[in-house]
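Exercise: predict the fold of this chain.
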Amino acid sequence: MSATPPPPPPPQQPYGGAQQLSPADEKLWATLVQVGGILFNWIPALIGYLVLKDRGPFVRAHTATALNFQITIFIAYIVGGILSIVVVGIFIIIAAWVINIVFSIIAAVKANQGEYYTYPIAIRFVS
């Protein structure tokens, strides 16, 4: 019996190191984050940003812009909720809802095509 040591284990990703996504996966996740904002407001964008921001430049750009836009829309919902005491708030909420649907669909289509997209009315909170 020879006392040869076992072979070394295969190299692994260090803690905190994220594997890069393929371009197809980046497009998929960017599209899903954009569409998720229609149903769940800022939550998918925040989760996507925190989980996927180090996985590739394309998905990072889309999750950051989606998060900025969804936070802006959420602020509009809060302002509309406060102003619903005087009837104008209801119109603000409806307008924010329509804008959220329209721009999220446009951004999802651009993400699916592999193009970058910047929302025209988003306040920049996250870069």
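Check your answer against the key: The mean pLDDT is 89.
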